[in-house]
Automatic annotation (TrEMBL):
SUPFAM superfamilies: Glutaminase/Asparaginase. This is Asparaginase. It holds the Pfam family Asparaginase_C. GO terms for molecular function: asparaginase activity. One of its GO terms (biological process) is amino acid metabolic process. Residues 206-317 form the Asparaginase/glutaminase C-terminal domain.
């Protein structure tokens, strides 16, 4: 018998139509989830007091999920987090880094259409999430969506129309669900040490800056120079290239000098930052930007948030950012 805890935080899956459009409908989802009861699976559902459209997610919501998982960690074999799709990849990234020493499955899922809709994708998604949450060898945070199980720290929302809403462009799925589940155990992460979940700071200012031609580089630089900023993800061009704009480079230096970090990732959906592939990658690196390899923007932001919350700064922060911690980046 597997015991699973389902945490319901909001999202389309439990929404109903209102005059303004879809909105969460308290009390609805737990009743619908009763249909998933079967021999061999025992689950409890906790509906959060504040059900949200996940576009409203904030660090305090992440802390609530972390606290709920931490409190009941010993009582269950696995966990399912029902979440809106808009920011599911951010939450998956945050949980992947914040749940240190995780040795049980934590599987996020949701739906593109509410469960009450006759064509909802939510039934498959929840069924697959529950199945993955019963896998004792799965020691990581994952997203179950449209018959795929994806590493949480690699996943991205890629589609707002089709049911294949998520992908992990730089990493193989952890499983594919067909008539049988096809577990890709060769890529699953090993458990590491003792479970030590970390709460997040709720006061951090981390910018995600998408470089663009024209004034984009200078604007990004000015934001980084602002002392209120704790860190930045810089989405540069191609394999990590940027113009040698003095305002941009001064911003990187200023933010790095005050103990923060600039994490350089690529705007391209696939592939990695590779310093030295082009001469145009050198100025950013020399100014102190940390090369983020093939980190997704969501995982980059999550990694910065969790490491800054743990009190890291300066060279220690840069060193942790540059190496894979939870399978989030390919080592080159
Ligand atoms: N706006 C919704 C949310 O993220 C979208 C969804 O769940 O599919 O909560």
């Amino acid at each position: 018998m597997s015991r699973v805890l389902v945490l319901y935080t909001g999202g389309t899956i439990g929404m109903t139509e209102t005059p303004d459009g879809l909105a969460p409908s308290p009390g609805l989802l737990p009743g619908l989830l009763e249909r998933f009861r079967r021999p061999g699976l025992d689950f409890d559902v906790v509906e959060f007091d504040e059900l949200i459209d996940s576009s409203a997610i904030e660090p305090r919501h992440w802390n609530r999920i972390i606290a709920a998982l931490a409190e009941r960690y010993g009582d269950y074999d696995g966990f399912v987090v029902i979440h809106g799709t808009d920011t599911m990849a951010y939450t998956a990234g945050v949980l992947a880094f914040a749940l240190r020493g995780l040795a049980k499955p934590v599987v996020l899922t949701g739906a593109q259409l509410p469960l009450l809709h006759p064509r909802s994708d939510g039934w498959n998604n929840v069924a697959d999430a529950l199945e993955a949450a019963c896998q004792p060898a799965l020691h990581e945070v994952a997203i179950a969506f449209d018959r795929l199980l994806l590493r949480g720290s690699r996943a991205r929302k890629l589609d707002v129309e089709h049911f294949a809403g998520f992908g992990s462009p730089n990493a193989e799925p952890l499983a594919r669900f067909a008539i049988h589940p096809h577990w890709n155990k060769a890529v699953w992460l090993p458990g590491q040490g003792e479970f030590q979940p970390k709460a997040l700071r709720e006061d951090l200012s981390i910018a995600c800056l998408f470089l663009s031609p024209g004034q984009g580089a200078a604007l990004a630089g000015r934001l980084m120079a602002d002392p209120a900023l704790d860190a930045a993800v810089l989405m540069s061009y191609g394999s990590g290239n940027a113009p040698a704009d003095p305002a941009l480079l001064n911003g990187v230096k200023a933010l790095t000098a005050r103990g923060g970090a600039v994490l350089n990732i690529t705007q391209a959906p696939r592939g990695a930052v590779e310093v030295g592939a082009y001469a145009a990658s050198q100025p950013l690196a020399r100014a102190g930007a940390v090369a983020g390899a093939d980190l997704t923007p969501e995982a980059a932001l999550a990694k910065l948030h969790v490491l800054l919350s743990a009190g890291l700064s300066g060279p220690q922060l840069a060193a942790q950012l540059a190496r894979p911690l939870r399978g989030e980046m390919s080592a080159h």
